[in-house]
Design brief:
With 415 residues, this protein is α/β, with parallel strands linked by helices. Helices cover 33% and strands 22% of the residues. The protein has 2 domains: 287 residues, Aminopeptidase; 114 residues, 2-Layer Sandwich (Alpha-Beta Plaits), CATH 3.30.70.360. The longest helix is centred in the last third of the chain and has 21 residues. The protein is elongated. The structure holds zinc ion.
């Protein structure tokens, strides 16, 4: 039975970690930024050196393939992949693992001349982390990107997607052309770190993902009145920040008590204007995020939170605006891909557990166009989206071998 080369995979993981690498460990490599574009060029070089055909689509997605130069319905492929962009001060495995393990699998299969009926393709999807728009590249690939909204897409710091893509040599208006011809992908499976503590705590090496949460983000703006922070009597102040803070606390309570067991919420961005210690905040902007594997729960919570925002604004005599930013759809994973992975892991002697993904992934978009699934390996301490995100190297090897044989089984037309 063939297997991946852990030294080669380790060397590539450490090689990619140099792009945007931080002095104390971890990496900042946001999509379309100079370190990301250097990493893109490096990855294309590694794919070519491994004997793969490569191409980049109009959404900036990178592909490496065995024996084909484009995706066509005449030759449906088995696709794997993940992303090489990171969050600010992120870790070296989120995304990178799935791309580089996929590349390693294709190289190991090619070198061993293992026969496979369907071509194999590895993809690195653009802007998975959603600096400009969640799961951007896979959304474009799966035909879920509206050309009309592209001009308005911007990062929280105000940088526009069209400008960021132009600097990297891409025309954002062409991104929807990345749409894959229907029937071109026979199956998709993505290897990823769990990013949570469940597998490690249970001592299980492989997670088989049953469903992926949806993520809704909206900008909530409270509009009060800027005033002198010394001379304005307390009872006359219309403090936008205090309304925002009140809202954040109430939302937390509401989601914990009224959401599902899987519901989570976060306020990770707060801006106060004018932002001076001697001025009562006239305007407070929050980015509010909620996640749940059930779309109906998410929609209900979104409506209830909007009502909460209006109630808080009314009580505190400020205005409120709610602007939806993005909403990814929760997706069940393919039962066929789950069954294949479980069968492969039984053959490899690896225990598995089914779980849902509390993080969003490109695999949820791929579920729109093909049988889509994910394989998780444990995260050390459950840590992710931080510089000390890591997994055990043997866990990485086990996960990559599970991916390798899952891909081969899916690429056998009879599977
Ligand atoms: Zn990821």
């Amino acid at each position: 039975m063939i297997s991946i080369s852990l030294p080669r995979l380790t060397s590539r993981i450490n090689g990619l970690a140099r792009f945007g690498g931080l002095p104390g460990g971890g990496v900042t490599r946001m999509c379309w930024s100079p370190p990301h574009e250097e990493a893109r060029a490096w990855l294309l070089g590694e794919m070519r050196a491994a004997g793969l055909e490569t191409w980049v689509d109009p959404a900036g997605n990178i592909f490496g393939a065995t024996g084909i130069r484009a995706l066509r319905p005449e030759t449906p492929v088995v696709l794997t992949g993940s992303h090489i962009d990171t969050v600010p001060e992120g870790g070296i495995l989120d995304g990178a693992l799935g791309v580089l393990a996929g590349l390693e699998c294709l190289q190991a299969i090619g070198e061993s001349r293992t026969r496979h009926a369907r071509p194999l393709v590895v993809a690195a999807w653009s802007d998975e982390e959603g600096r400009y728009g969640s799961l951007f590249g896979s959304r474009a690939f799966c035909g879920m990107l509206e050309g009309a909204g592209l001009d308005d897409m911007a990062a929280v710091d105000g940088v526009r997607l069209v400008d960021a893509m132009a600097r990297a040599g891409f025309d954002a208006q062409r991104a929807p052309q990345a749409r894959v011809p229907p029937g071109s992908v026979a199956a998709y499976v993505e290897l990823h770190i769990e990013q949570g503590p469940r597998l490690e705590e249970a001592g299980i090496p492989i997670g088989v993902v049953e469903a992926i949460v949806g993520v809704r983000r909206s900008r909530v703006i409270f509009l009060g009145q800027a005033d002198h922070a010394g001379t304005t009597p307390m009872e006359r102040r219309r403090d936008a920040f205090l309304a925002a803070a009140d809202y954040a606390l109430r939302v937390r309570e509401h989601v914990v008590t009224r959401g599902s067991k899987a519901s989570v919420t976060n306020f990770g961005v707060v801006h106060v204007h004018p932002g001076a210690s001697n001025i009562v905040p006239g305007r407070a902007e929050l980015v509010h995020e909620m996640r749940d594997p059930d779309v109906s729960v998410l929609e209900r919570l979104a409506e209830e939170c909007a009502a909460l925002a209006r109630a808080v604004a009314g009580a505190r005599q400020v205005g409120v605006e709610i602007h939806p930013m993005s909403a990814t759809t929760p997706a069940p994973c393919s039962p066929r891909v789950q069954a294949v992975t479980e069968k492969i892991c039984a053959t490899l002697g690896l225990a598995t557990r089914r779980l849902y993904s509390a993080a969003g992934h490109d695999a949820q978009n791929l579920a729109r166009v093909t049988d889509s699934g994910m394989i998780f390996i444990p995260s050390l301490g459950g840590r992710s989206h931080r510089v000390d995100e890591m997994s055990d190297w043997h866990a990485i090897e086990r996960g990559a071998n599970a991916l390798l044989h899952t891909l081969l089984a899916l690429a056998d037309v009879t599977a």
